[in-house]
Amino acid sequence: MTRYFTEEASVETVNERVGSEASPRLREVMTSLVSHLHAFAKETNLTQDEWDIAIDFLTRTGQICSEERQEFILLSDVLGFSMLVDAINNRRPEGATENTVFGPFHVANAPIRQMGDCISLDGKGELCRYIGKVTDLDGNPVENACIDVWSDNADSFYDVQQPDIQPKWNNRGRFFTGPDGAYQFVGIKPVSYPIPDDGPVGQMLGHMGRHPYRPAHMHFLVTADGFQKLVTHTFAGDDKYLESDAVFGVKKSLIAPFVRSDDEETVWRSDFDFVLVPVE
Ligand SMILES: [Fe+2]
Question: Ligand 1 mean position to 194 CA, how many Å?
C-alpha cells in the first residue's frame, strides 16, 4: 500500500483507496480517469493559478446550467468528446448511415405529418424538398419507419429558443414510411448558427481562437422496429463551416446535395437515403 502521497506515486495512492464496495465497472472507469487526469497535470506542469482558473471555469459552467441551458453538454461538444462517445457507441457496418450528435434542440412527440407536408410554419427562408428512402443494409425498403426531423429557421434559431416569436413546432415533424420506405417533406434550406456562446464555453472558444458556428444541417432521428436507432443530420454541401463545425458533428458521408428544385413549391431539393442496421 502507498499510504502517503508522493508526486511519483500519486495515481497508485489514490486508486488504492477504492474499496471493495465499488462495482468492477466503476473501479475501471474511475481509476482510469484518475490515471489520465494526473498524467495531464504532470505533462503540462500545471500551475496553481491555472488550476484555480479551471475550477472557476467549471464552477461558472455549472452555475449557468438551467432547465433550458446545459453548458456542460456544450463543453463536451466543443472538446469533441460528445462525438467521440457517439462514435464509440455507434460503430456500424459499411453502407449504413452514420450517426452524429443528437444536439440539445430535439423535442419529443412532434406533430405527425403526411408525406409531402411542409414543416416550416413561419414563412421564412427558402423552401427545400427533402426526399429519399429508408432501407436495410440490403437495400430493402423499411416500412413504418418514423422519421423525426427538426431544423433552425432562417434566422438561425430553433423554435424552442424563441417561444414568443416562432410558432410552436416550427420546422419540426414526424413522418412514417409506407411499404416503399420512401419519404418526402418540405422544410427550409437550413442556415448555419452559433452554439450559445454568451457563457463560459463561449469565452473559452474565444480565448482559443475558435468560432462558435455549426454548418447548416437538418436533424433526423430515424427509428423502426428491429433496427438500431439512427441519430444523424444531413449537412448542406455548400456551407462555409463544414470543415470547422464547432462541435465536430460533420462526417463526409452526411454532406447532402442541395440542388435547385424543379417544382413550383420549393427552391431547393435534397436527396438522401437512410440505411438502417438491424438490432442484434
Ligand atoms: Fe442543430
Answer: 10
Taking CA atoms, 277 is separated from 92, 93, 173, 187, 267, in Å, by: 7, 8, 23, 27, 33
- Whole-prediction pTM: 0.90
Cα–Cα dist 7/27, whole Å: 22
At 104 the pLDDT is 85
CA of 119 to the centre of ligand 1 (A): 16
Written as nine digits, the cell of 92 is 456500424
How far is residue 55 CA from its own chain's centroid?
Answer: 26
83 alpha carbon – ligand 1 mean position (Å): 14
Question: Residues in the chain with pLDDT < 70?
Answer: 1-2
- What is the total residue count of the chain? 280
Beta strands in 101-179 (DSSP E): 127-135, 146-150, 172-176
Q: Cα of 205 to ligand 1 centre, how many Å?
A: 18
**Res 58: pLDDT:** 98
Fold of 93-275: Protocatechuate 3,4-Dioxygenase, subunit A (2.60.130)
For ligand 1, a single-atom ion, the residues with CB < 5 A are 103
